[in-house]
């Protein structure tokens, strides 16, 4: 089958949330079967003649004619979705009576908008005409000519390039816009009324990012404009619709009053979605087996682009904490999957949007770039994009392009990482025998449950020996190198570019070796997970932790804050003193923070210390009286301290501040603090804001994960989740998000009630979240051993 084009005309009844549609499809095929979910199909014509059709609510089958080339016309009507956040749906703001209509089609939801062949391989040209009530604005992938037809406004959009159905977009509502039309492409930010001024930073980032990509890929951006659109209720963080990218408000809006973390997030998400305009939109995977091609590459390139624009933000350090670390954790579970995994059902597709497809894939690309060199890697990517522009490709096509550019056959190496799950633990030993020394490396698969698995990988090993960087491709389980003498300095996995962990037989040698911040982070992150896996004892971990707490590195301090939060959540009584002592030592490094990253490190350390140290919290909470005047980086720990040391009156004050806030960034900051109360009923009241709409449907992911780390309200949060699980499940129906919610929240939420949590989900049988539930429970059992 081949689809040439879709000509689509829609007439919207915005108030009653429905529309009438006419669609003309040019295609080449014998049998016609279209994906079409929950339409009222009124008429069908084939090549100008009325024709019979069969429709079961999911698939539209049309009686064939002998000609292979067909012109298919369909008249239909459809209601806009009001409970879920996929397909074409109502996105509320400021109560139920204010809303926009927006779309979210990835992976298989375009069929809920128009009858179509809803598979990425079937690219087509789209021509869209939309009639709406006067006063409403319509946004789609292309620019539009606006005219008036009777009492309505007609938006006639230019035809798109050939693209996949999941990249089509339609938004209708009272949008407010600002734009930069100084040069091509025109960049436009569209927001809810009163918020567009906070889109100026995103426009600045987008302009610089597009220019960077055009130079890096040696391919111009293909469309005349790029819309960046905030959607008030949005299940995903952002979506790369070609020329009309959608975002959560917290992923697009920032200004000088925003925290450093918020500005970095906006920059990274904007750059991620813009990378997709080439890698995903211009060239698209043939099938969802290769989803990682889209997401891993966009993740990798976004950090490269932001690092170029804002070098002071040290984005490759952010990459380690935001991408590599979560991927290493999830990939150390038996429930993991290969980066390239065979998928068939819609639920399988949706569950592929995880830390493996994003973070692991991106980390492997970083490892391969380090192995090949930056210029050869760039040349291979450019060759790939030029060869497959406006069409589809597979992972093998990318390896071929990279191999051609580098002169090295990468497929055997890449198959080791892409087609098999997990990653190696590399044990570093120094062996002395008859006066001679050898560096000995051994690889085993690293599993968080501590079990042995002799799976091997083709590892681009890097190490620094006595100040000299060296590298070797380790294909077998063991590898040895002769040395002249026992080294004075040795560190493996230089700048943590490799997707593997390193365990040293001589830990003291590694500790006294000069290391970059990324290498210090790698040592601390590895040894924390060795503790969980039972590879080392608590005293060995404390040794690495004490060393790390003295290192003036924002990257290391942020990691300490994260690890201490987990340990305190597992058992305040067992780890409280260690957490407090470590964080008190760490926060001394940032008592007078200079620059945005140091302020962010102080904020992260102070936020965790506020939870664990009541004395510290009492002092910090005094700043809450001047909360609105505080620096954006200081607000979070102050609000947490205010909640930790307060009771009902503090709840009332925080709730009042929440209700007066107009920005999601500020609202989430306040909600995070309200989930830190030591009184469990106050945490339950906070979760109850979900019923009033003051916690958005889209944010329940972050809220549950945050609430699960409060050891004082664990049972209350678990009870709330059980009562509301079906409602949350319905919101995220048709996506893999619910599985990710449970994967991230169950490991801490279930501490002390492991059997109850396990039995509950065995009985509940939530198929669309099955992988996430299994991962969450496996991680729960691993952490429980530390309790």
Give a description of the structure.
With 787 residues, the chain is of the alpha+beta class. Among the domains are: 1-174, tricorn interacting facor f3 domain (Immunoglobulin-like, Sandwich), CATH 2.60.40; 177-258, Zincin-like, CATH 3.30.2010.30; 283-418, Neutral Protease, domain 2; 646-787, Zincin-like fold, CATH 1.25.50.20. It is 42% helix and 22% strand. The protein is built from 26 helices and 29 strands. The strands form eight sheets. It has an eight-stranded mixed beta sheet, with no helix packed on it. Strands 16-17-18-20-19 form a five-stranded mixed beta sheet, covered by helices on one side. Strand 4 and strand 5 (49-50) form a beta hairpin. It is globular. It starts with a strand and ends with a helix. The mean pLDDT is 92. This is Aminopeptidase. The record marks 358 as: Transition state stabilizer.
Give a quick precis of the structure.
Helices cover 42% and strands 22% of the residues.
Keywords:
787 residues; alpha+beta; Immunoglobulin-like; Zincin-like; Neutral Protease, domain 2; 8-stranded mixed β-sheet; 26 helices; 42% helix; EC 3.4.11.-; zinc ion binding; M1_APN-typ; zinc; protease
How is this fold's topology laid out?
Elements: E1 2-13, E2 18-28, E3 32-35, E4 40-46, E5 49-50, E6 53-55, E7 59-62, E8 69-79, E9 87-92, E10 99-104, E11 125-133, E12 137-140, E13 144-149, E14 152-157, E15 170-173, E16 176-180, E17 186-191, H1 200-217, E18 225-230, E19 238-239, E20 244-247, H2 260-276, E21 283-285, H3 291-309, H4 315-330, H5 346-350, H6 356-372, H7 374-387, E22 391-393, H8 395-406, H9 411-418, E23 424-433, E24 436-445, E25 459-465, E26 468-474, E27 478-483, E28 490-492, E29 501-504, H10 507-512, H11 517-533, H12 538-549, H13 554-570, H14 572-587, H15 595-612, H16 614-621, H17 635-644, H18 648-660, H19 664-674, H20 680-687, H21 689-692, H22 700-708, H23 714-731, H24 737-749, H25 754-764, H26 770-784
Parallel strand pairs: 1-11, 17-18, 18-20, 21-22, 23-29
Antiparallel strand pairs: 1-2, 2-8, 3-7, 4-5, 4-8, 6-7, 9-10, 11-14, 12-15, 13-14, 16-17, 19-20, 23-24, 24-27, 25-26, 25-28
Helix pairs in contact: 1-2, 1-3, 2-3, 3-4, 3-6, 4-6, 4-11, 6-7, 7-8, 11-12, 11-13, 13-14, 13-15, 14-15, 15-16, 15-17, 16-17, 17-19, 18-19, 20-23, 22-23, 22-24, 24-26, 25-26
């Amino acid at each position: 089958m081949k689809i040439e084009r879709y000509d689509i005309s829609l007439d919207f009844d915005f108030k009653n949330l429905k529309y009438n549609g006419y669609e003309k499809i040019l295609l080449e095929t014998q049998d016609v079967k279209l994906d079409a979910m929950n339409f009222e199909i009124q008429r069908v014509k084939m090549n100008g003649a009325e024709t019979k059709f069969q429709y079961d609510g999911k698939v539209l089958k049309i009686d064939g004619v002998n000609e292979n080339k067909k012109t298919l016309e369909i008249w239909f009507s459809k209601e806009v979705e009001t409970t879920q956040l996929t397909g074409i749906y109502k996105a509320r703001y400021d109560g139920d009576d204010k809303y926009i209509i927006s779309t979210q089609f990835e992976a298989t939801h375009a069929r809920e908008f128009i009858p179509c062949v809803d598979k990425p391989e079937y690219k087509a040209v789209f021509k869209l005409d939309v009639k709406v009530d006067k006063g409403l604005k319509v946004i789609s992938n292309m620019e539009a000519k606006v005219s008036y037809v009777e009492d309505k406004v007609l938006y006639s959009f230019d035809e798109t390039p050939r693209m996949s159905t999941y990249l089509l977009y339609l938004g209708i509502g009272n949008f407010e816009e600002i734009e930069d039309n100084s040069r091509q492409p025109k960049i436009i930010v569209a927001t809810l009324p009163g918020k567009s001024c906070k889109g100026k930073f995103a426009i600045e980032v987008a302009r610089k990012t597009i220019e960077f990509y055009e130079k890096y890929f040696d391919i111009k951006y293909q469309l005349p404009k790029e819309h960046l659109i905030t959607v008030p209720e949005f299940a995903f963080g952002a979506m790369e619709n070609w020329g009309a990218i959608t975002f959560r408000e917290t992923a697009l809006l920032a200004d000088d009053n925003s925290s450093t973390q918020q500005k970095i997030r906006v920059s990274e998400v904007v750059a991620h979605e813009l990378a997709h305009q080439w890698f995903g939109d211009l060239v698209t995977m043939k099938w969802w087996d290769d989803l990682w091609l889209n997401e891993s590459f966009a993740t990798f390139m976004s950090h490269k682009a932001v690092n170029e624009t804002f070098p002071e933000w040290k984005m490759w350090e952010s990459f380690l904490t935001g991408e590599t670390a979560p991927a290493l954790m999830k990939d150390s579970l038996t429930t993991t999957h290969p980066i390239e995994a065979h998928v068939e059902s819609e639920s399988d597709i949706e569950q592929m949007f995880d830390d493996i497809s994003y973070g692991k894939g991106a980390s492997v690309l970083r490892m391969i770039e380090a192995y090949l060199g930056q210029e050869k890697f760039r040349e291979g990517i450019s060759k790939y994009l030029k060869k497959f522009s406006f069409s589809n490709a597979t992972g093998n096509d990318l390896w071929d392009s990279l191999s051609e550019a580098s002169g090295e056959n990468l497929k055997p190496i890449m198959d080791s990482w892409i087609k098999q799950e997990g990653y190696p633990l590399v044990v570093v030993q120094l062996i002395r025998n008859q006066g001679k020394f050898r560096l000995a490396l051994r690889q085993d698969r690293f599993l968080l449950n501590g079990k042995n698995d002799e799976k091997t990988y083709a590892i681009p090993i890097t190490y620094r020996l006595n100040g000299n960087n060296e590298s070797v491709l380790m294909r077998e389980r063991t590898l040895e190198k002769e040395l002249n003498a026992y080294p004075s300095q040795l560190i493996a996995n230089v700048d943590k570019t490799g997707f593997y962990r390193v365990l040293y037989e001589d830990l003291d040698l590694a500790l006294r070796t000069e290391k970059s911040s990324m290498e210090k982070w790698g040592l601390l992150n590895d040894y924390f997970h060795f503790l969980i896996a039972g590879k080392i004892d608590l005293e060995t971990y404390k040794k690495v932790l004490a060393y790390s707490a003295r290192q003036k590195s924002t990257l290391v301090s942020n990691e300490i804050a994260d690890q201490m939060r987990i340990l305190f959540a597992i058992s305040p009584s067992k780890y409280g003193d260690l957490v407090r002592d470590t964080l008190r030592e760490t926060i001394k490094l940032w008592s007078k923070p200079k620059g945005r990253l140091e302020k962010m490190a102080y904020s992260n350390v102070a936020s965790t210390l506020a939870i664990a140290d009541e004395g510290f919290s009492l002092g910090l909470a005094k700043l809450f009286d001047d909360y609105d005047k505080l620096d954006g980086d200081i607000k979070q720990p102050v609000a947490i301290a205010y909640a930790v040391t307060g009771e009902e009156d503090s709840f009332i004050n925080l709730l009042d501040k929440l209700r007066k806030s107009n920005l999601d960034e500020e609202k989430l900051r306040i909600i995070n603090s309200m989930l830190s109360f030591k009184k469990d009923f106050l945490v339950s009241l906070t979760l109850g804001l979900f019923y009033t709409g003051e916690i958005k449907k889209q944010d329940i992911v972050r809220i549950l994960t945050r609430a699960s780390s409060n050891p004082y309200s664990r049972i209350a949060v678990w009870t709330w989740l059980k009562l509301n699980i079906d409602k949350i499940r319905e919101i995220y129906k048709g996506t893999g998000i619910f599985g990710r919610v449970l994967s991230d929240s169950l490991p801490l939420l279930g501490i002390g009630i492991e059997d109850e949590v396990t039995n509950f989900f065995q009985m509940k049988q939530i198929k669309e979240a099955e992988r996430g539930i299994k991962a969450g429970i496996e991680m729960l059992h691993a952490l429980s051993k530390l309790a």
